[in-house]
Specification:
CATH architecture: 3-Layer(aba) Sandwich
Number of domains: 1
Strand order of the largest sheet: 2-3-1-4-5
CATH class: Alpha Beta
Mean pLDDT: 87
Strand content: 5-15%
Order of helices and strands: EHEHHEHEHHEH
Largest sheet: 5 strands, parallel
Distance between the termini: 15 Å
Number of helices: 7
Shape: globular
CATH topology: Rossmann fold
Structural class: alpha/beta
Radius of gyration: 15 Å
Number of strands: 5
Length: 163
């Protein structure tokens, strides 16, 4: 499973809690970025599709080689990124989309001090975000609630695999 959404939506925190609640391993996709990508984002430059290609391949490979149930936090903003992950993983991948209003996410990004992604890149994240399509295995959850409620809703929606 991929827990997805724009930067600042809570992928790492919710992904970790969700994975723990279902007995899965959690991997933060930020840890799979090459150093060049992290440096580029930290300097305020959005990544290009070419920058993301190797990272998405590592995300897909991590899903493919992981023998246990795994949840990876990965923005997966565009359909072609999600397709690359699915194709590289050579398996069904469920996308868990954390959805939130720009002002809510901007506020959260401004409050965090330990992340390389600057708040000024949030607009580029929203510009790149493509909605999930009906043929994608996915659920969406609004992040304007406490973390435990988000995790509970993810679990409930996964049981029915509905958006």
């Amino acid at each position: 499973m991929i827990i997805m959404g724009v930067s600042g939506c809570g992928k790492s925190m919710i992904g970790f809690a969700f994975a723990k609640s279902i007995g899965a391993a959690f991997i933060d996709g930020d840890d799979l970025h090459p150093a060049e990508n992290v440096a580029k984002m930290a300097s305020g430059q959005p990544l290009t599709d070419a920058d993301r290609a190797g990272w998405l391949a590592r995300v897909a490979e991590t899903l493919r080689i992981n023998e246990e149930n795994v949840v990876i936090a990965c923005s997966a903003l565009k359909r072609k990124y999600r397709d690359a992950i699915r194709n590289g993983a050579k398996a069904d991948v469920v996308f868990l989309h954390l959805v939130g209003a720009r002002d809510v996410i901007a506020s959260r990004m401004s409050a965090r001090h330990d992340h390389f992604m600057p708040p000024k890149l949030l607009s580029s994240q929203f510009a790149a975000l493509e909605p999930l399509e009906p043929d994608e295995m996915a659920v969406e959850v609004n992040i304007n609630q406490d973390p435990a409620a988000i995790v509970a809703e993810l679990i409930l929606k996964l049981k029915g695999e509905q958006k």
